[in-house]
Amino acid sequence: MSLGISAIKMKRLVEILYIVAENSSCCMLKVSAIVVDSNLSIISTGYNGTPAGSPNCDTYKTKEDHYSWDEIHAEINALALATPASIVSNNRFILVKNLPCQSCTQAIVANMRNLDLKAIYYLEDYKDDKFGDHQMELCEKAGIDLVKLTL
Questions:
Q1: Which residues, in sequence order, are bridge partners of residue 36?
Q2: Short-list 74, 71, 72, 58, CA closest to 25
Q3: C-beta atoms surrounding 101 within 10 Å
């Protein structure tokens, strides 16, 4: 792990990540994201779901007719709630249950300086049917690590 985090501490964060994912009411895939600083303090969390006031997709859709256009992705929710980095809290990373889609990767890269994000850690692959798998290339160009965890 490029930020020097022990496996046991990362496993604890992963446990929290899965608990956060349970808040999602998505009928297709429960996704979560956590922004963490170098002291392993959680800065923000996010999970995928419909906008506030909208019906949850599990109340009116099934996996067969699911469309993700009306759901806000976990990464976007976590980024929206994260506070800018300070001198005391730097070298942050984002831990994501699934490989971010291209749009979420772009949002992470766009916020990497403001939030001092150094890495994206993810647990499970996700195939982005719309954009393919350009996430690695985008992260390399931006200078942010994209690491699949194997715990």
A1: 42, 93
A2: 58
A3: 20
What is the distance between the alpha carbons of residues 92 and 33, in angstroms, rounded to a whole number? Answer: 13
| Six-digit token string for 89 | 């809290």
Segment 11-68, tens digit of pLDDT? 999 999 999 999 998 888 899 999 999 889 999 999 998 888 877 777 766 666 665 4
Residues 6 or more apart whose CB falls under 8 angstroms from that of 124 comprise 97, 98, 99
List the one residue out of 82, 151, 88, 150 whose CA is nearest residue 117.
82
Q: Find tokens 């009306």 and name the residue.
A: 70
CA-to-CA separations, 83 to 48, 59, 78, 92, in angstroms, rounded: 19, 33, 10, 11
* 8 Å CB contact between 36 and 57: no
Q: What are the tokens at 78?
A: 């976590």
